[in-house]
């Protein structure tokens, strides 16, 4: 567990997820999915049981090249990051992340702190060399954060997303090599 301060001085912590977080993580995810159109999953598609969430958490925790992190404030989840390492021998050095921050806590440095915690973990890891992520081209704040952390654009999936209003959105794939990459 690592304590941090938001840009306006609120104390929160970042720690690994465990199965006891399953119910709260589901509620948090439902809230986040309902609050934005910048994520792939819609609220209607997110129907996971607490038991299934616990299995998912435990499977990720058993993986040597994957990580789950949450930011909490007063024992409530305010940010979530998952990093899933590839499982085949030829690409086990690569992992993909997903990250989101509660709408009420965005632009306070929490996403940056989660990302920096992951990057530190990757730099101390003996297998992972490359972090990849995908981001909607319309998510300008996230893209700005990723560039500021050293990520580079690797590719673009044109019209990969079709929003409910019919608008198409490109998806940008970005990468960062860790200290060993």
From TrEMBL:
Q: What sequence ranges are listed for the domain N-acetyltransferase? A: 12-175
Instruction: State one Pfam family annotation.
Output: Acetyltransf_1
Record-given protein name: RimJ/RimL family protein N-acetyltransferase
Q: Check the record and name the InterPro entries matching this protein.
A: Acyl_CoA_acyltransferase (IPR016181), GNAT_dom (IPR000182)
Gene3D superfamilies xref list: 3.40.630.30
